[in-house]
Write a structure and sequence with these properties.
Blueprint lengths: L1 E3 L9 H4 L3 E4 L4 E4 H7 L8 E2 L10 E3 L3 E4 L4 E7 L5 E8 L2 E9 L7 H14 L3 E7 L2 E9 L7 E11 L2 E8 L6 H12 L2 E2 L18 H11 L21
Parallel strand pairs: 4-14
Antiparallel strand pairs: 1-7, 2-3, 5-6, 6-14, 7-8, 8-9, 9-13, 10-11, 11-12, 12-13
């Protein structure tokens, strides 16, 4: 997992501690200014295709098919399957999380409408509940899903989707961010800052875009294999199961 705070110095007087922060007047919450520019940007903001990636001051972690903003006051966890392949990236901020994954899509049309209708039916038939609404990114799926496979307890989840040129990006908000706009604002800003790298390779629609470990994580895994070397960064862990869109 990756994480860093947006300020290194100790928190002192409130005025001094918020010099580089701004307040969203509608949500009445303090956001890091880098996230705030994206969260409040409105139409025309990201997520972005790599061909239209902005020339901004955001530091992004290169995961191959995705370049995701480096976390601010949060952690970035990489989800891995049993084969060791990276399948998704998850931001964890307090009790809220945002999981993102990207898929190939047809050149001629998007797939989010079809995907959310399939997810709606699947969640309802599996014992959860879901309905389609409209949010910050347009049509979205608001659901209650099992906290873990085989568990009856449900947790709120909010699914958003973006159709790009030959790709589809999905985000899943859980925790307070699934229902509280104030709790979701910073994570929405991270989602808007994502750059999708589709590549030129032929892929079947809904195939997942390949993701890779960043070099920092590879180094951490190599160090963990050698007990004589200090472990500078924890290796990615296999995360919670994700809802399939196939």
């Amino acid at each position: 997992m990756f994480g860093r705070r947006n300020r290194d110095e100790p928190q002192g007087d409130l005025d001094e501690a918020t010099d580089d922060l701004v307040v969203d007047p509608e949500l009445d919450v303090v956001l890091d200014d880098r996230i705030d520019r994206l969260a409040l940007g409105g139409d025309g903001q990201g997520p972005f295709d790599s061909a239209d990636a902005p020339d901004d001051d955001f530091v992004r972690v290169d995961l191959g098919g995705l370049r995701v903003p480096a976390p601010v006051d949060s952690e970035l966890r990489l989800e891995m399957n049993e084969g060791g392949q990276v399948t998704a990236a998850t931001y964890v901020m307090g009790r809220s999380s945002l999981q993102v994954s990207a898929f190939a899509a047809p050149r001629s049309e998007g797939i989010w409408q079809e995907v959310r209708e399939e997810m709606l039916e699947g969640i309802n038939s599996a014992g959860g509940s879901a309905e389609i609404g409209t949010g910050s990114f347009g049509p979205e799926l608001r659901a209650k899903v099992p906290e873990a496979p085989g568990k009856k307890a449900l947790q709120p989840a909010r699914f958003v989707g973006i159709d790009g040129p030959r790709w589809f990006l999905r985000g899943m908000f859980t925790g307070p961010a699934a229902t509280d706009p104030g709790a979701a604002a910073a994570l929405e800003g991270m989602f808007r800052g994502i750059v999708v790298v589709r590549g030129a390779d032929a892929m079947a629609p809904r195939d997942q875009l390949p993701l890779v470990l960043p070099r920092e994580a590879e180094m951490a895994m190599e160090q963990a294999a050698d007990p004589s070397e200090p472990r500078r960064m924890p290796a990615p862990e296999r995360g919670p199961e994700i809802t399939e869109i196939q």
